[in-house]
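Quick one: sequence plus S-adenosylmethionine SMILES, need structure tokens.
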Amino acid sequence: MLSYQHGYHAGGPADLHKHIVLAGLIALLTRKARPVTYMESHAGRGLYDLSGEQATKTGEWKAGIGTTTPDGPFRQVLDTVRAAHGADAYPGSPSVAKALLRPTDRIVLMELHPAEHAALKAAMGQEIEVHKRDGREGLLALSPPKPRRGLALIDPSYERKEEYGETAAFALDLARKWPEAAILIWYPILAAGRHGPMVERLRAAMPGVIIDETTFPAHKGRATGMTGSGLALLNAPYGANEIFRSATSDEKNE
Ligand SMILES: C[S@@+](CC[C@H](N)C(=O)[O-])C[C@H]1O[C@@H](n2cnc3c(N)ncnc32)[C@H](O)[C@@H]1O
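Reply:
Sure thing.
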């Protein structure tokens, strides 16, 4: 099922949570000269227009990037993307990676939705590897990549209940195939608490996992009933805890 389109949610409070942490992690990994590989299983279209039809329809961004001016690496990304594409542009996760990674690093992106994939290819340019391929299958097939140091983002749309269990199993398989990777997983927090068993499974298998959850004030949730946003980081690099702390204070900077 590919009915989800991220344009309705771009720049919302959950995106902000994910993108501030993602930018912080990429900045942390690129402090060392050795090159890295960044891979994404569910990339989206890469670049969003907050004045466009989808973003205007939900207005979700108004409760996210519309309420705060982030600091740090995500601010740098936002400035770069808006200088190139205008004041209403908002970076998807592939644009966060593209803005912060170096020519020696490698970016590999999976996106299955035909229109989203076409837009992603156009936004990313020639030098970035963009696949129209199932994200779980694609990342496992290409792992371990070269360079082996790196980061994977797993950001599914959770349209089916089973996706929580499938995401945990996939992340653990990926950690086995690519043990040098830090693996960042985003998940929605719904009143139904579907993320609970997934998080417990990750904690049991990877005792050092960092779990970071934010709860939205009632007016900030998605129309779909999301009450918060969660991130799980497997194989956290040294210094990652500090990124989560500063992301939380950026989000509160309203
Ligand atoms: C939450 S969005 C990604 C947002 C993006 N990571 C960001 O932060 O800007 C999830 C994306 O996964 C895509 N998708 C859904 N199922 C997929 C699959 N099996 N393989 C690859 N992409 C898939 C959807 O089309 C959608 O664009």
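The chain has one domain: 6-251. Residues 6-251 form a domain with the Rossmann fold fold (CATH 3.40.50.150).
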